[in-house]
């Protein structure tokens, strides 16, 4: 009987103890701390707007060409008996150097024949002069009055004088043909191509080759009307054309050649609507300057033309200027702001802002997927330097 009562009372006691213990724990529990959610701005990198005075450099490009190009053409007939060692493609030669020599035997014979003909004509002229003197003396001795032309042998004298002049012309022609058997370089240059060689028979008008002058090289540079607005061309106070720096990648290294604009072509290209300016480079093959990289004909080069100077402008990476000439900056309240600006000029790398920005304002350079005006942000790097700020994750630092 006692065991049955214990089985009934014991569970009830345990249940009461558990209820009391739960009430005690609930009364001793501290309420959970309430925290307000604080919005953390996106971390962005910025650069500071810095006004500066600039000298614009107009970019263009073109191919290097020789200023002088000549086709060598034979003026006589004959067989080639001698060629210069420099008469090879790419060979350099000096002004007046013998390049090709044609067999001269026939032309030497022609000169001798012309000399003999001149001697005969001269002798005949002397004989006729003697007859004229005799005729004048006889007429003066036997007849009074003015002597007729025929009586004084004036027509015969004129004929012999004409024969002498004709013989002199023939001698000059023969001597000229003889000199043309030696083809000499009209100026210092290089042989671009050749079409004949020693032993070959050529006729008058045969093209022997093509030569380029090496004193000056030219580059035609296309320019737009907008480019011309920032260039200093002769006129008014400006008396000379601007300087040009040509660059090209040669054997993996960037090479530079100084030059100067010499003229602009007076007609716009009908298809591209650009005008061409011509730059010249002295001694492009550096034949008088040892140890420098030559500027070879046919090379494609980039040109930086010295332009006009500007006042206080702000130079920005071109990608920072958004459609509508707007830039994204961080205002004094650490919020994003879209600001319209006035762009004076752009090139392949930069945009040059005249108005709309103040010195020291922060322009966003981080890539933000969906920037909105008024979005709260934090400054990360300013002009490439980190600000003193709490450590953030790589994801926040990138602005993602």
From TrEMBL:
The chain crosses the membrane at residues 6-25. Residues 111-184 form a coiled coil. Gene3D superfamilies: 2.40.30.170, 2.40.420.20, 2.40.50.100, Helix hairpin bin. It holds the Pfam family RND-MFP_C. Residues 324-368 form the Multidrug resistance protein MdtA-like C-terminal permuted SH3 domain. The keyword Coiled coil applies. It comes from the Bacteria. InterPro entries: MdtA-like_C, RND_pump_MFP. Keywords: Coiled coil, Membrane, Transmembrane, Transmembrane helix. NCBIfam families: RND_mfp. Belongs to the membrane fusion protein (MFP) (TC 8.A.1) family. This is Efflux RND transporter periplasmic adaptor subunit.
């Amino acid at each position: 009987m006692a065991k049955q009562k214990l089985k009934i009372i014991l569970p009830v006691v345990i249940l009461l103890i558990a209820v009391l213990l739960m009430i005690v724990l609930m009364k001793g529990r501290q309420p959970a701390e309430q925290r307000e959610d604080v919005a953390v701005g996106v971390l962005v990198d910025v650069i500071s707007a810095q006004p500066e005075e600039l000298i614009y450099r107009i970019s263009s490009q073109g191919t290097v060409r020789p200023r002088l190009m000549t086709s060598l053409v034979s003026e006589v007939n004959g067989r080639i008996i001698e060629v210069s060692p420099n008469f090879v493609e790419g060979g350099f030669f000096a002004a007046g150097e013998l390049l090709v020599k044609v067999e001269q035997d026939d032309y030497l014979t022609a000169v001798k024949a012309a000399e003999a003909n001149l001697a005969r004509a001269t002798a005949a002229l002397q004989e006729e002069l003697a007859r004229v003197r005799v005729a004048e003396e006889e007429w003066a001795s036997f007849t009074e009055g003015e002597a007729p032309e025929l009586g004084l042998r004036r027509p015969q004298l004129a004929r012999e004088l004409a024969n002498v002049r004709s013989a002199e012309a023939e001698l000059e022609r023969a001597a000229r043909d003889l000199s043309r058997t030696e083809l000499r370089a009209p100026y210092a240059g290089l042989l671009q191509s050749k079409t004949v060689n020693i032993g070959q028979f050529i006729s008058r008008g045969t093209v022997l080759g093509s030569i380029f002058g090496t004193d000056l090289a030219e580059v035609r540079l296309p320019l737009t009307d907008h480019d011309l607005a920032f260039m200093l061309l002769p006129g008014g106070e400006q008396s000379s054309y601007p300087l040009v720096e040509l660059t090209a990648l040669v054997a993996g290294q960037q090479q530079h050649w100084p030059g100067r604009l010499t003229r602009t072509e007076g007609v716009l290209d009908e298809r591209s609507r650009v005008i061409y300016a011509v730059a010249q480079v002295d001694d492009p093959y550096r034949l008088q300057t040892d140890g420098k990289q030559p500027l070879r004909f046919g090379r494609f080069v980039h040109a930086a033309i010295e332009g006009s100077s500007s006042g206080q402008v702000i130079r920005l990476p071109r990608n920072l200027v958004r459609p509508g000439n707007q830039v994204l900056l961080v205002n004094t309240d650490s919020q994003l702001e879209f600001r319209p600006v006035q762009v004076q000029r752009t090139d392949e790398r930069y945009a040059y802002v005249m108005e709309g920005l103040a010195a020291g304002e922060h322009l966003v350079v981080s890539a933000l997927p969906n920037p909105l005006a008024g979005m709260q942000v934090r400054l990360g790097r300013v002009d490439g330097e980190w600000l003193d700020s709490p450590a953030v994750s790589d994801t926040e630092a990138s602005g993602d």
